[in-house]
Amino acid sequence: MRDYGRELRFGVSVAPLAGEVESIRRVVRAADREGLDLVGIQDHPYQRRFLDTWTLISTLVPLTERIRFFPDVANLPLRPPAMLAKSAASLDVISGGRVEIGLGAGAFWDAVAAMGGPRRSPGEAVRALEEAIRVMRLVWSEERSLRFDGEFYGLAGMRPGPAPAHPIGVWVGAYGPRMLRLIGRLADGWVPSLAYSAPERLPEMHDRIDGAAREAGREPREITRVYNVEGRIGADGDGPLVGPPEKLAEALSGFALESGMDAFVFWPQGPPEEHERQVGRFAGEVAPAVREAVQGERARRPGAARTGGGGAK
């Protein structure tokens, strides 16, 4: 059993489909209105049906008041890190501190190359992502003139600014051992998806992150763990997140108390016209039940929250 004792957060994902702009707006407004914490939007610029993720987020920020946005996750090979950091800081200022960064090393390399991006080996992708995190944090720093001489990225006297409105978190979407160790050493969070990292795989992956964090002098519980979860509330079918709200709440409570995850981004399935209603049920029925179950269990075994989930119990 693993529980890092972090405050739970809940969010929603919207697919950036060019033909569903009004549906996206309705879902995001509903998520903000119903008190959800996060909106995550996938970033596949080479997908012809998709809007540009950063452009879409910038149009959704003015429609909301409190919810935070993040690319889930930004395609690094097509977004130079200094410019990505500048864009994130700018939108963070405009939104009043409501932007985080989900960052991915890249995938679908043929499509990336077709847009003029680099084709990277697994080792190159890891090294490039580490450099990108360091570059972005330099851009957000208070240094007057930035210099960085890396294998993939460089800064030659850049003048940074504006500063973001709050410390922007860098949450990395990754699954391989080297990437997980990088997250433990350097990142603020981890963003896996249920479809690619089932709950039974999470303990081993947490171990890699936590071991690297401790070697770097970091406390593992400082690292946010965001789980992308697909589901359909009120539908019949198999799967832990298809069915009545009680079924989803039980599954997510287990992911928090036994699998170490502390934020859940719900990807509603089914026709787009159902998504707004599903978001309302997720916010109004599922999320409160998960919070109540997790808080109750933590109260019965408070040591779990204090230990930071340092291993199996």
Concise synopsis of the structure shown:
The protein is α/β, with parallel strands linked by helices and 313 residues long. The protein is built from ten helices and twelve strands.
Written account of the structure:
The protein has 10 helices and 12 strands. It is α/β, with parallel strands linked by helices and 313 residues long. It has one domain: Alpha-Beta Barrel (TIM Barrel), CATH 3.20.20.
What distance lies between the first and last C-alpha atoms, to the nearest angstrom?
5 Å
Report strand %.
15-25%
Question: What's the shape?
Answer: globular
The CATH class label is Alpha Beta
Helix content: 40-55%
Number of strands: 12
Kindly give the count of domains.
1
CATH architecture: Alpha-Beta Barrel
Radius of gyration: 19 Å
Q: Ranges with pLDDT <50 over ≥5 residues?
A: 304-313
Mean pLDDT: 95
Provide the structure class: alpha/beta
Q: What name does the CATH topology carry?
A: TIM Barrel
Largest sheet: 10 strands, parallel
Describe the secondary structure blueprint for this structure.
Blueprint: E1 9-13, H1 21-33, E2 38-41, H2 53-60, E3 68-71, E4 74-75, H3 81-95, E5 101-104, H4 109-114, H5 122-139, E6 146-149, E7 154-158, E8 170-172, H6 177-186, E9 189-190, H7 202-215, E10 224-233, E11 242-243, H8 245-257, E12 263-268, H9 272-300, H10 303-307
Parallel strand pairs: 1-2, 1-12, 2-3, 4-5, 5-8, 8-9, 9-10, 10-11, 10-12
Antiparallel strand pairs: 6-7
Helix pairs in contact: 1-9, 3-5, 5-6, 6-7, 8-9
